Amino acid sequence: MACLVARTGRELQRYNMGRRQVVGCIPYRYKNGRDGAISDELEVLVITSQKGNAFMFPKGGWELDESVEEAASRESLEEAGVVGNVECELGKWSFMSKSQETYYEGYMFPLFVKEQLDLWPEKNVRRRIWMSAAKAREACQHWWMKEALDILVERLTSAQKQEEENALACSLS
């Protein structure tokens, strides 16, 4: 059973040369087709900010007692109520916090969603919505998260093309 309480406080927060380190995930899945089979149509999960209706991907502080992948997984559970496989890092970005006018380092990962929970720690302060990658890119408020989404889409599209080419090559043999 997963912990249903979000971590609070900054006592364990990681910093690198004065920059707070944050970690986020782009939760994704492939939409189910009408026949129940999984299609190749990508969907990503966006959440609202705690204080408004701005859309973003789950992210938060990376703490001293966890790996970067554990932090990414924890933030996805706390903020979006999803559990899955954290995949290879999409990149690292440096950006300025809107509220505190300080620089942050942000790491983003894909999270292939295996389970969506009905109850999660921040259910009462956030909404979550599955949408196409194109719509998520339009809706997302952070430029660096949009760049991470572009990298994820390119990675998944390239992998899918490679699989199709391999299947074609095998059928011609």
From TrEMBL:
Cofactors named for this entry: Mn(2+); Mg(2+)
Gene Ontology molecular function: any one: pyrophosphatase activity
Keywords from the UniProt entry: Hydrolase, Magnesium, Manganese, Metal-binding
PANTHER family: DIPHOSPHOINOSITOL POLYPHOSPHATE PHOSPHOHYDROLASE, NUDIX HYDROLASE 17, MITOCHONDRIAL
Pfam families the record matches: NUDIX (PF00293)
Gene3D superfamilies, alphabetized: Nucleoside Triphosphate Pyrophosphohydrolase
Signal peptide residues on this chain, from the entry's feature table: none
Name assigned to this protein: Nudix hydrolase domain-containing protein
Nudix hydrolase domain span: 18-153
Stored SUPFAM superfamilies: Nudix
Domain of life (superkingdom): Eukaryota
Higher taxonomy: Eukaryota, Viridiplantae, Streptophyta, Embryophyta, Tracheophyta
Family: Belongs to the Nudix hydrolase family.
Organism annotation: Prunus dulcis
PROSITE patterns in alphabetical order: NUDIX (PS51462), NUDIX_BOX (PS00893)
GO cellular component, one term: cytoplasm
Magnesium found in the keyword field: yes
